[in-house]
Amino acid sequence: MGRFSIMVIALFSVITVNALANILPLNNQTTGEISNRLPVLFTPAGYVFSIWSVIYVLLIVWLVGMWKKSKQGDANYSKRSTLFIISCVLNIAWIYFWHYEKFLFTVIVMIGFLITLLLLYRTYSVSDNSIKSRLPISVYLGWISVATIANISYVLTYYEWNGWGLSDPLWAVIMMTVGTALALHIRYHYFDITYVFVFIWAFIGIAVRNGFEELLVSTAALFLSAVMLAGIIFMKKSMSHSSTSSRT
After folding, report:
1. Are residues 90 and 98 in contact, defined by beta-carbon separation less than 8 angstroms?
2. Is 78:3 a contact under the CB 8 Å cutoff?
3. Would you say 10 and 88 are in contact if contact means Cβ atoms under 8 Å apart?
4. Average pLDDT, the chain
């Protein structure tokens, strides 16, 4: 069986497992039911998770691009395909551990998942063609970055961590601030708008979910979304200026 065939099987296995986990559902509970069981302030509103549909469509498009690159003898094809297959295995493993409430394992798997996607992301150079090619991975990495923070928040809440005396809303703001710093870091070093927009999408969802009940969290989420949007605009101008200077 060829490497590309394994990638196709891996992706459709992920889609199938994620779908069946909620249709059956796995261990008699859906992914969302487990997520909503605890009052985790970092968790976005339910509609935000529709981004998975976008991710799956983009990954299918990405696989078509990978098939073309395999025919062209692309130097990064082997590394990218291996990392992608590993990411699919970790995605499925996370679903299993989540539905069977082995939450500590979900954090370990999720961190491995994030690192794998980051390594895959870093196989792309900062150029116009690479930016277009990596867009599906940018969205995927962005969402898993958000999901990792949410996963850790959930597990800490599950084990009744006292937060070193800080309140839950304050910790939610701290985690959103860390997320914002990460998003702007990727924006600055990789000129990646897509990755940042995923965070903005999630943060607006956090504001919607918390509403007026947790005003500090909602306000911080909207403020940090504005900060990231400003970062996108500022970096765009900076890039244009740098490009002009280099031609001069």
Report:
1. no
2. yes
3. yes
4. 93
Nearest to 56 by CA among 104, 114, 17: 17
Which tokens belong to 126?
């900062």
- Which residue, chain included where needed, has tokens 């490009």? 243
Backbone angles phi, psi at 234, to 5 degrees: -65, -45
In the numeric block, which tokens belong to residue 204? 């607006």
Gap between the Cα atoms of 46 and 7, Å rounded: 29
What are 129-174's pLDDT values in tens digits? 788 899 999 999 999 999 999 999 999 999 999 999 999 999 999 9
Per-residue DSSP letters for the chain? Answer: --HHHHHHHHHHHHHHHHHHHHHTTGGG--HHHHHTTS--TTPPPGGGGGHHHHHHHHHHHHHHHHHHHHHHT-TTHHHHHHHHHHHHHHHHHHHHHHHTT-HHHHHHHHHHHHHHHHHHHTTS-SSHHHHHHHHHHHHHHHHHHHHHHHHHHHHHHHTT--GGG--HHHHHHHHHHHHHHHHHHHHHHH--HHHHHHHHHHHHHHHHHHTTTTHHHHHHHHHHHHHHHHHHHHHHHHHHHHHHHHH-
Residues, the chain, total?
Answer: 248
With a CB cutoff of 8 Å and minimum separation 6, the contacts of 69 are: 76, 77
Average pLDDT of span 213-237: 92
pLDDT tens column, 11-39? 999 999 999 999 999 999 999 999 999 99
**Is the bond into 25 cis (omega within 30 degrees of 0)?**
yes
The average pLDDT across 68-85 equals 90
In angstroms, rounded to a whole number, what is the distance separating the alpha carbons of residues 248 and 241?
Answer: 11
What is the CB neighbour count within 10 angstroms for residue 104?
11
What is the value of pTM for the model shown?
0.93
